[in-house]
Amino acid sequence: MDQDFVHPLKLFDLAKSQKRFLYTSAPMVRYSKLAFRQTVFEYGTDLCWTPMVLAKEFNRNRFARDSDFTISTNGPQPPTIVQFGANVPLELARASSLVAPFASGVDLNCGCPQSWACAETLGAALMENRELVRDMVIETREHLRRDGWRVGKEKDIDSPKGRSVSVKIRVHKDLRKTMDFITTVLGPDQDRHIDFLTIHPRTRSTPSSTPINVESLEILTSTFGDRVPILVSGDVFTLNTLPFTSHLVPPSQDPQQQQQPLIKIPKLAGLMSARAILANPALYAGYDACPWSAVETFMNKVAKAPLPFKLVLHHLSEMCAPGMGPNKNALLSKPERAAMLACSNTVDLIDFLDEKRARVLQQQEASQDNGAGGVVASVFDGLRRDMQ
């Protein structure tokens, strides 16, 4: 497949030149599929992650490859990082070579806290095996280089064969262990082992309901931010309510945050959102709640890159419910969401969404004539034609 790929480091540079963070969507099990990645890409996400793919199964099973990694051959293929779960250098390297023709880079998951992953020495369990992680990224980079891919980091950002190798981590209770981990995995400044780093500033046992440790993030970015671009994952709910500040953050409009000075993190390069962008794919476009247009965009993407019907319903239930930010307005009420979940097929679902959207437009047009009804009708009419 002939396709141009943008090197992730080039995207970091572009965001920096625009005096903003790089905007990314997180690897979410089941949810970071192609249709969702295409949707968030249309709403300002610069770089998308796939769900975590188990490298060993991916290497050995054609069905795993077909189900775990879907790409677009007709339409936008967002800049995509394929995240792998692995604990053997050669397994990660081989899996990375398989996806290299179709992705901008590969990422090693060192952050998943689920018990099954840690029992297999995957995800967050790797935070106790820094030499193994170092060996895996070195082996992967060498394997990609031997296969003809350009993995020279900044010097290869303009190459059509330039690819990145990165790691996503959590932190330890003793932050010194995290600093030792990063130092080992990062390697020498003159030829570091990874292109960029994602930090989720919670420990393996910290629940997602507990705020991220901003103090740890500040220390780690201050220590390593000049050596490698760093993304933060966690508590990115809206652009106006980040739990820290930076020269790249617009002044907060939240009176409570204005009264409580936030820690400044000047060496952070980008943001990664998971739960919030699942509920509001337009987060990075500046919306503080999910707009109807994002629902329409998602349904159009699903028509061309199908997902299991139950998964589509779950996406929509997240998008139509109150989001993670302060704005708790919802596209559908709780009874309406229950009625939507009762739909048994895609045609019924589209009819349901069409009816609810038309009602919203009628309410809007009662106060002002915006003439949007015909546009929305044509969107859903197009979906119906695609299904016939």
From TrEMBL:
Q: Which reaction does it catalyse?
A: a 5,6-dihydrouridine in mRNA + NAD(+) = a uridine in mRNA + NADH + H(+); a 5,6-dihydrouridine in mRNA + NADP(+) = a uridine in mRNA + NADPH + H(+)
State the superkingdom.
Eukaryota
Q: Which InterPro entries match?
A: Aldolase_TIM, DUS-like_FMN-bd, tRNA_hU_synthase_CS
GO terms (molecular function) for this protein are: flavin adenine dinucleotide binding; tRNA dihydrouridine synthase activity
GO terms for biological process, alphabetical? mRNA processing
Q: Which residues form the DUS-like FMN-binding domain?
A: 26-319
Q: Which UniProt keywords apply?
A: Flavoprotein, FMN, mRNA processing, Oxidoreductase, tRNA processing
Q: What parts of the sequence cross the membrane? A: none
Q: Does the keyword tRNA processing apply?
A: yes
Q: Which cofactor does it need?
A: FMN
Where does the signal sequence lie?
Answer: none
> What this chain does, per the record?
Catalyzes the synthesis of dihydrouridine, a modified base found in the D-loop of most tRNAs. Specifically modifies U47 in cytoplasmic tRNAs. Catalyzes the synthesis of dihydrouridine in some mRNAs, thereby affecting their translation.
Protein name in the entry: tRNA-dihydrouridine synthase
Q: Which organism is it from?
A: Rhypophila decipiens
Q: What is the lineage of its organism?
A: Eukaryota, Fungi, Dikarya, Ascomycota, Pezizomycotina
